Amino acid sequence: MAGRHWLDPLARRLLVATGQLPPLPPAAPTDLAGEADEAVERELLALKLAQNPGLRLRDAAEVRQAAALGWTLDVNLAAAGDWLRLPGCRPDLVDRLIHLQHDGVQWHGPESLAGALQVPPEQVRIWLPVLRFDRREPRPAQVPAPLAINQASEGLLRERLGLGPERCRLLLMERAREPFRDLADLQQRVQLPPDLAERWIGRFHYGAAPGPVLPPAPRPAP
Q1: pLDDT digits (tens, 9 = 90+) for 189-201
Q2: Of 33, 84, 132, 136, which is the most exposed, with the fewest CB atoms less than 10 Å away?
Q3: What is the DSSP secondary structure assignment for residue 140, as one 8-state letter?
């Protein structure tokens, strides 16, 4: 937690007037020191969010403060970038969520979400202050159809993913050894940097490569 900090009153009034900070509720005369510290931290987070609306939250305390500032995440409609703002929400988890969303899956509570992500319930409880589980009509996909990562040709991989020759060669070599199971497996085996893994969220499906296609059996002579 940061130490105590006060904005200059005039500066704060200007930020409130321009909509960059929400007005703070009037402090009760019996406010405790801990509550005052929370208000200060919330105000600092509001400043950071005003400067960077896509700011990633660092821990459970910032999730609670973001909730107090009115930020919410609609579980059944959220895009990949929204999920990535939550602490501990890795690209491979978001990739799984986006695929399930595209399949029409909806979640009704933290237990079903934790089960879908295969994460401990404690992880979802950290996010819970900002999560909303409203049932929604599925949103039309805004991205191209997923690429069959275990079947796509080298030319298609380079065209769709912008891969250089070395990384494309590594991807093909690893795929020949064993089909990719999911984004986490792909990221580890092809040594993807985190920013590239994030850009690839929801872009592939991982069906195993098909076996050889055999010619039809000859018809018996009449």
Answers
A1: 998 888 889 998 9
A2: 33
A3: P
> What are the Cα distances from residue 173, in Å, to 146, 154, 176, 185, 190?
21, 11, 5, 14, 9
Q: Mean pLDDT lowest for which of 5-14, 38-47, 96-105?
A: 5-14
Would the pLDDT of 210 be above 60? no
Per residue in 127-160, pLDDT (tens digit) is 999 999 987 665 555 556 788 999 999 888 888 8
Please give the Cα distance from 75 to 30 (Å, whole number).
Answer: 37
Structure letter (DSSP) for residue 132: E
d(CA 161, CA 155): 10
Report the alpha-carbon distance of residue 169 to residue 6 in Å, rounded: 55
Average pLDDT over residues 216-220: 47
The first and second tokens of residue 9, run together, are 């009153």
Residue 109 tokens read as: 């509570």
Q: What is the mean pLDDT of the chain?
A: 80
Phi, psi (rounded to 5 degrees) for 147: -85, 135
| Torsion angle of the four alpha carbons 202, 203, 205, 206, in this order, in degrees rounded to the nearest 10 | -100
Q: How far is CA 61 from CA 70, 79, 125, 133, 173, in A?
A: 15, 23, 12, 21, 44
Spatial separation of the C-alpha atoms in residues 163 and 42, rounded to whole Å: 42
pTM exceeding 0.85: no
Whole-number Cα distances in Å, 130 to 51, 52, 63, 74, 82? 20, 18, 7, 8, 11
Task: Please give the distance of CA 107 from its chain centroid, rounded to a whole number.
Answer: 16
Of the candidates 42, 40, 182, which has an alpha carbon nearest to the alpha carbon of residue 118?
182
